User: Which sequence fits this backbone?
């Protein structure tokens, strides 16, 4: 390490979790952690007088690595062609745009002030793949959520009524795959698509004869009983279609008693009964959510760019392929899940896209920074490095007005955004980017600058507006190392951590039946299934029992 | 006019996208032009290290002489002026051409005019594969301009072209006009396998019956397409090109397809 | 002169002998080989196991001729240095050379099946 | 010692149930592997390469130094191979390519490269081999011969096994083989369709046309239309169908267009029932090489770093083309044998260039290389990740020790030396 | 010319602004190009009742036409853009599209254009095809005979209508002979057409009528047999009057055509006077003084 002690001197500190709201104070760093005090002689002093000092940002939901991201890369050479990045300062070269290469992903996140990014959808069978990509996504701390909502073994056990085995299996799966949280995507829907059926429901019988709600309930119990730091991360049914808000209401109602995270909520706030009557129903969803502090969400904001959609919601991607035409990739992963990919361009002159754009902002502005976090569901709504654009819209009603003038003229009658005056302050924005998602993730050492926190610190030079200020860091300190200095990456030579949970459920806890199912139906042997420790070169294990 | 002469043969690829009227005009003087950067393999070098450069760019004309078969990306994104090449030339010639003329007295390698949107290319020789083709994964190929090739071309001519006119006076390889969205191709020699595969709209005019027509194309009669007379008159009058006499006023056999797509494209085969 | 269609591909024996080593006799026996249709062999007067000279537009090689279950007019060779004496390096802009479906001419030969050294000599022999 | 669940590092099947018996530091027995896999394990110490420079035996260190000298001096190096080594080594190869502004290509360009090209154009509906085992009631092998190239494919994944929803195994499946010639694989088929060489595109085109309701008669590509009609009926009647595509599509006339047609057929069939396509990848980690290339550069093969950033151009930066045009001045071969596998014209130019060969085994390439660096065999003497043909990553094992460093280590040392850092051997 | 100037009345022709277009009709032969052109220009004598005035400008050799086939150049004038658009649609649709082997091109480069092809293409019932060449769009509309090729857009520009001369003479024979000569002479001029049958009109008109529903009526002042009721400006001995009307793209071209027409007519025996129709300068924006036609020549 270049220097294991740092004093960040004279900055204007924003630390929402500790209630610090723009006080001038020094931050002390030792051995990668924030400490109470430090002697000045031993430490490197970085004078940040006049600059904004905040916890490094945390992205709760961004598809940056793994099989479907790589499949998307394969599908889109023309997308990479437009955004090449040269090798310089010892950084690796690569390509950007909608599915950036791993190094470029890391570099761009770092310059935006991020220290932690979570990939939200990894099939356990291919977890190694995600972890390998994350190893090539340097500096950032990363975690993966494990897809379980369509797992055949889980359904099999539930059908048998063996809830205990089901729970143990889920906990084992999370551990075996090196996951941080349980991810559920259109429960029952992905499996049904393997049978050629489009299935979207919580309460209808899946092809297993089990209602998806039962599966999510069990997974909620797992999250609860095993004290998982992050609750079930749920992408519910009916994504993206007219009337999807009913699915959101249904979902909220079904799981209102649990901790829960609703992924890219924006896509579940649409009204209307056809594309022609497509409209925002964000207010209804916000109303339903306002009573349940235990449920968080992220935006899934839409940006008007050519991007690549990808999700484990395979029936939805197939539907989108039929709607949009053009390329379609799909990958069914044995017994577990699947994924679909469709390139898509959000257009300002498209009424539906215009409404989608507004909806994301509506829910964020109405529910506030502690409840809804900034994401674009990268790259589904647009690449993550468009976040400064989103910040602009969240922090400036004028900027929103300007956009509303540009979008489809009929959109205004279908949205609420023009009625919302709220503008997030710098403090609120920092909350939304760091403190709140870290809290929702249960990452106690992230998202704040109190003693004991990881020394992941973003330092910004104040510029004309909040959005401009937050658009690029002047310094980024990661684990106490100066990664960005004077707005340029100076050190990206280490791989960052994998943050995962250990549920304590080992192979021995699995019933013989599960082992038999495994041996019979998987195409890899049981002993070659579990992700080996070698894939966690630097890791933080959250032991939860 | 500015004249570039290749000093000696190069063996490794020389990336010379700086050779274009736009970039020369921007540089201004011969001195500054010769300092423009090129890549020889991984080495960044100056244009003047490879070429003897004389003249002035004021009239927007460039003449290059020598065996340029390893020199790539000449004329990238050029928008005006005349670029004349005497000698064989390497890959990616006139990529993204927007305007002006590129004239080659020699053969051209693969990937001629990818992403072209306007201007004229005239090649008095043969052209390689993927001429005027869409980049991998790109929905659209060239979106305009006129490309005249006096010799033959390789495979995948005009892939997914959106607009524009391509004339090949001799043979074309396999999958000529694959995925054409619109535009017109004339192939006045033999054509390889599967012309027009996946084409949506657009026209492929052939002098000779192809060896086979895909099952997804349908025979659609014989007729006199008067627009062919118009096209050849236009092209012959404006460019140094002469179509076979047989074409004028002729009847054509029409195949419509590709019915895997819209089925609104056509292959017209000139009848005797 | 009759024209044959050359197809190259994998065989089990090629896969097995690969691990003996590419310079070994067993490898040559299994890879320096062409499979032909029985009737074709009779027509050409080629005796099972005898040497044949194969020629394409891209090169020539001497290998052992063996009867195989093939349609008439087709010749099959396992992937390897011998087959690649006959294949075309033209990739048509795709990176994939023409490795299957090549026009082939077959002549009886009295020469022994080439070994890897002879193959490399032949590679170098013609200036391009 | 009996080692169970060993992963076989030969073909894209990456069978992970192999049993290997080790005695006195050598492999004495192999169970469950196919005949090629057995040969690989049992003969892995035969015909090994030795460290050498210009044919003169030397030390690993000297060979590495000589390699560094070449790589440092040359302006445009081709790095080629990669498909038979670990992800770890492939990563390093890419880092090296980025560092020295090389072109890097992997064996897929002469294997399933056209499949990648087709995926760029259409996308691909695909699945893991376990889905085939559990669901597929119709499997089509098009231009591939698994019984010779992927010997346990039928047995483990595609034909024989009893799956969760195909409980009868072989009896629950229809096997269709499409090829230009009868093969052992076609003999096991319920339906064998023999296509005239080079006309697969037309046949696929006809199937797609009929799927869209088009009427045809006579024959296409040497196949009677009625036969195609019945094939289409079988395809439509499948609950879950899988097309396995092989070199018969990628290497013949039409190349990526053939694959594009196969992918399009599968995509279009998905409007009726479920169909997937799986490419029958050859080398055990050729998929992985593509994966690493994709996540580090955005492209699956044929990448050039001359300008300091990745550029992709098959037909330009692909190995055969670079050699045919002689556009490189040195070649670094990692775990591959281009001298044996490339067409003559490309080999001729290759022989005139300085070659650095990193390979555990002797090959025609090591025989003519200027520098040979032997390494430990991945999957026997060193561990690492490999990706099965369906993209499932599996950890290959270390069973024995080697006196040689791994590919990863060799490349890492080369990189360090070029960067001017010394790294301990 | 001055020696005959006394026969030319010192008056002016009153011309007005119109919109004009040039259409080039080609076909396999001049015959069929002409057939189409005649049909196109038929019933296009006067805007008052025809909606436009049109005429054949000249025939074109294959070298002169866009598609290398024989062709005819046709000019058409109307009082407004809209009117012109309407007439082009009708006439191309009914007289060119319908006529065997024809193709229809724009013959006037102008910044202002009318998109006609985009409407007529629908005749193709979805089977029409578009072609874009050198920035111009063309439509290929399938028809039973083969295909109808037409350009999408036609240049229009402001033009002059109603340039005219009146030939006053001592007999019908004389004025007709003179008028024929005048027509022949003026047809050499580019950019001008003579819209009436054979280029000649006998029923010159004045603005208005005693009948409220009529906008124009016979030009009483020049009707010899109505001398009893009129002002008596008509010279003695005039027994018959014929008019030639000129429409063109420029005042210069109209003037040139009028000048050549007068020169040819005035020489004919039996011609007493060359005059012109005007309405005291109330109708048109242009007053073309006959005697000034020779100024500068």
Assistant:
């Amino acid at each position: 390490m270049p220097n294991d002690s740092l004093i960040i001197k004279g900055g204007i500190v924003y630390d929402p979790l500790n209630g610090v709201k723009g006080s001038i104070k020094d931050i002390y760093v030792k051995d990668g952690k924030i400490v109470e005090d430090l002697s000045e002689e031993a430490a490197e002093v970085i004078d940040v007088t006049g600059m904004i000092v905040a916890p490094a940002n945390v992205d709760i939901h961004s598809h940056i690595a793994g099989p479907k991201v790589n499949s998307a890369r394969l599908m889109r050479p023309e997308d990479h062609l437009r955004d090449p990045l040269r090798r310089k300062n010892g950084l690796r070269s690569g390509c950007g745009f909608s599915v950036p290469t791993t190094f470029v992903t890391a570099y761009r996140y770092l310059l935006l002030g991020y220290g932690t990014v979570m990939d939200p959808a990894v099939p356990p069978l291919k977890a190694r793949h995600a972890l390998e990509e994350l190893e090539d996504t340097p500096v950032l701390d990363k975690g993966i959520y494990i897809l379980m909502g369509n797992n055949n073994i889980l359904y099999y056990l539930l059908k048998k009524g063996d809830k205990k085995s089901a729970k143990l299996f889920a906990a084992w799966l999370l551990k075996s795959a090196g996951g941080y949280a349980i991810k559920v995507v259109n429960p029952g829907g992905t499996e049904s698509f393997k049978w050629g059926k489009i299935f979207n429901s919580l309460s209808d019988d899946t092809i297993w004869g089990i209602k998806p709600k039962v599966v999510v309930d069990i997974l909620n119990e797992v999250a609860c009983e095993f004290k998982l730091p992050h609750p079930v991360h749920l992408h519910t049914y009916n994504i993206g279609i007219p009337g999807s808000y009913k699915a959101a209401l249904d979902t909220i109602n079904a799981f209102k008693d649990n901790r829960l995270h609703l992924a890219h909520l924006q896509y579940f706030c649409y009204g209307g009964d056809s594309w022609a009557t497509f409209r925002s129903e964000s207010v209804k969803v916000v109303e339903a959510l306002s009573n349940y502090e235990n449920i968080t969400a992220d935006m899934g904001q839409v940006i008007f760019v050519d991007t690549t959609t990808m999700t484990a919601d395979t029936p939805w991607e197939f539907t989108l392929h039929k709607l949009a035409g053009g390329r379609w990739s799909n990958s069914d992963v044995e017994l577990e899940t699947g994924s679909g990919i469709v390139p898509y361009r959000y257009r300002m002159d498209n009424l539906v896209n215009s409404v989608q754009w507004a909806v994301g902002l509506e829910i964020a502005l109405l529910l506030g920074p502690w409840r809804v976090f900034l994401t674009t569901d990268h790259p589904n709504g647009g690449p993550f490095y468009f976040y400064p654009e989103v910040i602009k819209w969240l922090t400036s009603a004028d900027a929103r007005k300007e956009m509303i003038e540009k979008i489809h003229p009929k959109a205004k009658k279908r949205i609420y955004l023009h009625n919302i005056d709220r503008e997030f302050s710098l403090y609120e924005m920092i909350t939304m980017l760091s403190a709140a998602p870290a809290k929702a993730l249960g990452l106690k050492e992230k998202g704040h600058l109190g003693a004991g926190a990881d020394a992941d610190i973003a330092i910004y030079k104040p510029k004309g507006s909040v959005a401009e200020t937050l658009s690029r860091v002047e310094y980024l300190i990661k684990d106490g190392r100066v990664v960005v200095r004077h707005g340029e990456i100076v050190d990206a030579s280490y791989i960052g951590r994998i943050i995962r949970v250990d549920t304590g459920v080992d192979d021995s806890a699995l019933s013989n039946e599960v082992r038999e199912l495994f041996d019979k139906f998987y195409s890899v042997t049981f002993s070659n299934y579990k992700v080996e420790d070698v894939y966690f070169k630097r890791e933080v294990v959250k032991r939860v029992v | 006019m500015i004249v570039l002469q290749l000093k000696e043969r190069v063996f490794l690829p020389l990336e010379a996208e700086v050779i274009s009227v736009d970039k020369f005009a921007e540089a201004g003087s011969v001195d500054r032009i010769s300092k423009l950067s090129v890549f020889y393999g991984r080495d960044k070098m100056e244009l003047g290290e490879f070429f003897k450069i004389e003249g002035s760019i004021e009239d927007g004309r460039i003449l290059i002489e020598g065996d340029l078969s390893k020199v790539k990306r000449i004329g990238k994104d050029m928008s005006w002026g005349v670029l004349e090449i005497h000698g064989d030339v390497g890959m990616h010639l006139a990529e993204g051409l927007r305007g002006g003329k590129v004239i080659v007295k020699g053969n051209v390698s693969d990937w001629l005019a990818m992403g072209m949107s306007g201007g004229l290319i005239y090649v008095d020789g043969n052209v390689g594969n993927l001429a005027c083709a869409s980049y991998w994964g790109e929905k659209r190929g060239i979106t305009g301009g006129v490309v005249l090739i006096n010799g033959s071309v390789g495979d995948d001519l005009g892939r997914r072209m959106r607009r524009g006119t391509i004339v090949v006076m001799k043979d074309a390889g396999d999958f000529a006009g694959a995925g054409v969205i619109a535009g017109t191709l004339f192939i006045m020699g033999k054509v390889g396998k599967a012309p027009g595969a996946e084409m949506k709209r657009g026209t492929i005019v052939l002098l000779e019956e192809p060896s086979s027509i895909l099952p997804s194309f349908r025979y659609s009669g014989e007729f006199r397409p008067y627009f062919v007379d118009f096209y050849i008159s236009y092209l012959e009058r404006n460019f140094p090109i002469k179509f076979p006499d047989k074409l004028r006023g002729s009847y054509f056999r029409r195949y419509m397809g590709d019915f895997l797509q819209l089925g609104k494209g056509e292959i017209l085969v000139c009848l005797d | 002169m009759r024209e044959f269609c050359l197809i190259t591909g994998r065989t089990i024996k090629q896969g097995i002998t690969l691990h003996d080593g590419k310079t070994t006799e067993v490898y040559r026996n299994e890879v320096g080989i062409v499979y032909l249709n029985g009737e074709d062999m009779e027509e050409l007067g080629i005796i099972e196991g005898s040497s044949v000279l194969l020629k394409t537009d891209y090169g020539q090689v001497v290998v052992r001729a063996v009867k195989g279950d093939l349609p008439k007019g087709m010749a099959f060779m396992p992937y390897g240095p011998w087959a690649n004496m006959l294949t075309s390096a033209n990739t048509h802009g795709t990176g994939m050379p023409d490795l299957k479906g090549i026009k082939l001419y077959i002549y009886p030969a009295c020469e022994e099946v080439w070994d890897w050294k002879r193959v490399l000599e032949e590679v170098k022999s013609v200036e391009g | 010692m009996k080692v169970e669940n060993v992963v076989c590092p030969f073909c894209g099947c990456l069978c992970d149930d192999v049993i290997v018996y080790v005695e006195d530091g050598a492999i004495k027995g192999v169970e469950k592997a196919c005949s090629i896999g057995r040969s690989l394990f049992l003969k892995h110490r035969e015909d090994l390469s030795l460290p050498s420079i210009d044919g003169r035996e030397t030390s690993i260190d000297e060979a590495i130094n000589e390699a560094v000298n070449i790589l440092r001096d040359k302006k445009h190096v081709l790095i080629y191979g990669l498909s038979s080594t670990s992800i770890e080594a492939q990563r390093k190869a890419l880092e090296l390519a980025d560092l020295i502004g090389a072109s890097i290509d992997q064996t897929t360009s002469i294997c399933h490269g056209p499949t990648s090209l087709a995926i760029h154009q259409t996308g691909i509906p695909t699945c893991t081999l376990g889905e085939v085992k559990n669901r597929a009631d119709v499997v089509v092998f098009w231009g591939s011969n698994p019984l010779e190239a992927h010997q346990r494919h039928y047995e483990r994944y595609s034909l024989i096994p009893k799956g969760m929803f195909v409980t009868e195994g072989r009896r629950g499946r229809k096997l269709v083989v499409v090829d230009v010639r009868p093969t052992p694989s076609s003999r096991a088929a319920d339906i064998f369709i023999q296509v005239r060489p080079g006309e697969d595109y037309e046949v696929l085109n006809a199937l797609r046309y009929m799927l869209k309701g088009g009427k045809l008669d006579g024959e296409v590509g040497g196949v009677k239309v009625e036969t195609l009609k019945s094939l289409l009926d079988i395809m439509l009647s499948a609950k879950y169908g899988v097309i396995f595509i092989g070199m018969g599509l990628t290497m013949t006339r039409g190349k990526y267009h053939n694959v594009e047609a196969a992918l399009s057929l599968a995509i279009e069939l998905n409007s009726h029932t479920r169909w997937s396509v799986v490419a029958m990848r050859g080398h055990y980690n050729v998929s992985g090489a593509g994966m690493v290339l994709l996540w580090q550069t955005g492209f699956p093969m044929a990448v050039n770093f001359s300008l300091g950033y990745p550029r992709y151009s098959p037909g330009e930066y692909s190995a055969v083309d670079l050699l045919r045009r002689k556009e490189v001045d040195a070649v670094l071969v990692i775990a591959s044998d281009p001298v044996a596998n490339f067409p003559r014209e490309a080999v001729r130019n290759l022989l005139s260039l300085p070659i650095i060969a990193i390979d555990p085994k002797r090959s025609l390439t090591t025989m003519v290389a200027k520098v040979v660096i032997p390494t430990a065999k991945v999957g026997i003497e060193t561990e690492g990740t490999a990706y099965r043909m369906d993209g499932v990553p599996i950890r290959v094992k270390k069973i024995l020790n080697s006196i040689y460093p791994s590919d990863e280590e060799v490349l890492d040392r080369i990189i360090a030396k070029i960067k001017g850092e010394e790294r301990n051997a | 010319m001055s020696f005959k100037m006394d026969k030319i009345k010192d008056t002016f022709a009153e011309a007005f602004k119109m919109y004009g277009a040039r259409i080039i009709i080609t076909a396999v032969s001049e015959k069929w190009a002409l057939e189409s052109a005649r049909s196109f220009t038929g019933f296009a004598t006067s805007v008052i009742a025809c909606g436009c005035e049109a005429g054949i400008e000249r025939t074109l050799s294959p070298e002169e036409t866009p598609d290398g086939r024989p062709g005819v150049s046709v000019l058409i004038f109307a009082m407004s853009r809209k009117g012109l658009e309407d007439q082009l649609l009708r006439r191309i649709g009914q007289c060119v599209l319908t006529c065997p082997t024809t193709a229809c091109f724009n013959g006037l480069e102008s910044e202002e254009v009318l998109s006609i092809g985009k409407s007529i293409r629908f005749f193709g019932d979805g089977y029409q095809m578009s072609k874009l060449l050198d920035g111009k769009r063309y439509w290929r509309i399938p028809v039973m005979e083969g295909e109808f090729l037409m350009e999408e857009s036609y240049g229009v520009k402001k033009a002059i209508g109603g340039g005219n001369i009146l030939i006053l003479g001592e007999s019908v024979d004389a004025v007709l002979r003179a008028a024929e000569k005048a027509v022949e002479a003026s047809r050499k001029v580019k950019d001008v057409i003579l819209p009436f049958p054979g280029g000649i009109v006998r029923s010159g008109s004045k603005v208005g009528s005693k009948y409220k529903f009529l906008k124009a009526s016979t030009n009483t002042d020049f009707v010899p047999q109505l001398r009893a009721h009129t002002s008596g400006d008509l010279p003695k001995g005039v027994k018959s009057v014929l008019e030639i009307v000129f429409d063109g793209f420029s005042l210069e071209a109209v003037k040139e055509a009028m000048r050549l027409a007068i020169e040819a007519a005035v020489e004919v025996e039996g011609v007493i006077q060359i005059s012109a129709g005007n309405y005291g300068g109330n109708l048109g924006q242009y007053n073309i003084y006959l005697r000034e036609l020779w100024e500068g020549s």
